[in-house]
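Lecture 7, part 2: worked example. A protein chain together with iron/sulfur cluster.
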Amino acid sequence: MEPKQVDEFFTRLAALNPAPKTELAFTSPFTLLAAVVLSAQATDASVNRATPALFAVADTPAKMADLGPAGILPFIKTIGLFRTKARNLAALSAMLVEKHGGKVPADRDALQELPGVGRKTASVVLNAVFDQPTIAVDTHVFRVANRTGLAPGKETDEVEDALLKVVPEQWAMGAHHWLILHGRYTCTARLPKCPICPVADLCAYADKATEMPATVTPRAKPAPKPRPKKKAQPSQQRRAAKAQLGKKRRG
Ligand code: SF4
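Predicted complex, written out as structure tokens:
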């Protein structure tokens, strides 16, 4: 993609969402770090369902370390790889207490030293908490960067390096979010929504979809059955007339 097109690409995504944010729920640098660690190979929605109860009892590294893997486990059982994540969360919390005074460091090497924290997690934290123009590459960013021709690459690190080179400074802070959200909701892995894509004319993907994915229409409710008509009650007058007739016959 030409530099002018890259600028146009982000101009359009930014116009649609001027202040993009992570969809993970967090209240502090530590809870964001914990949420990002828990979100590996899991959806943000599944993490957001589990973390309110966990953070209610352990929203600092000291409290999380005290909880330990066995105490963390019941809170995150609904998230994939929960056993490993419980161990990592307890260990990284203990390391934050021992080495960083209970604070999340604003340094990539220090972050990546923490158990369960790789390059992607460190990039998300540096961007969301410390306002550093990093561009974490997850599965959505990887797909969008490759399909569009923005920053093609076979490995996530290669794509990240390419993105850092091609994304203009003006868009670097939000690029990670815009690319993630575009991949999550428009440029989806299966059946991308090319016909309504705001950057379709800039995109180099050879297999653009020409039709929108069929939406699942809810089954129509069966029409209510007509109720059997109630037998008409004889009116008072008719009852009275009948009684009168009966009297006459008897008389
Ligand atoms: S045109 Fe299609 S493939 Fe290209 S970015 Fe948009 S949704 Fe993705």
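Residues 1-223 form a domain with the Endonuclease III; domain 1 fold (CATH 1.10.340.30). Residues 147-148, 186-187, 192-194, 197, 199-200, 203, 205, 208 surround iron/sulfur cluster (CB under 6 Å). Keep this in mind for problem set question 3.
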